[in-house]
């Protein structure tokens, strides 16, 4: 397992806030993944001229630490997208299929938990081997983490 550091610089793109539930995230904070060193199976690349963390293969666990009451991720989803598992604060792992039947990458927001106590939390994410039967791959294109800062 590899613990990553992420930049604390919030993204200022107001357009992405429309992709999150305004009720659960009235003032979302968007954080770009920015690992301090290369991660096996993951690389920094660009989609639609935005820096993203691209994962192709099952591998290392990525950790994101934050303080707030809700958390989600923004990913570029297409017909090559895969499935991730995520866990909060060492709890059981949940599966999330980010596949889309579109051939062009579309930015989507996924709320992972909206009922957290207002304290520090750790989100872990990993790509899994299985995939949606319609998908041509297991790729994950992570644009941002977002959380509700109280």
UniProtKB/TrEMBL annotation:
UniProt domain Carbohydrate esterase 2 N-terminal: residue ranges: 48-126
Source taxon at top rank: Bacteria
Pfam families: CE2_N
Protein name: Carbohydrate esterase 2 N-terminal domain-containing protein
Organism per entry: Draconibacterium sediminis
């Amino acid at each position: 397992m590899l613990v990553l550091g992420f930049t604390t610089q919030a993204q200022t793109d107001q357009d992405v806030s429309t992709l999150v539930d305004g009720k659960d995230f009235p003032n979302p904070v968007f954080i770009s993944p920015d690992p301090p060193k290369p991660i096996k199976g993951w690389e920094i690349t660009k989609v639609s001229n935005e820096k993203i963390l691209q994962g192709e293969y099952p591998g290392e666990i990525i950790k994101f630490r934050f303080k707030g009451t809700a958390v989600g991720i923004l990913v570029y989803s297409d017909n090559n997208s895969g499935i991730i598992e995520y866990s909060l604060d060492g709890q059981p792992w949940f599966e999330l299929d980010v596949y889309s039947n579109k051939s062009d990458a579309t930015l989507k927001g996924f709320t992972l938990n909206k009922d957290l106590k207002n304290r520090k939390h750790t989100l872990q994410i990993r790509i899994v081997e299985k995939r949606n039967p319609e998908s041509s791959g297991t790729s994950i294109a992570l644009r941002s983490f977002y959380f509700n800062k109280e």
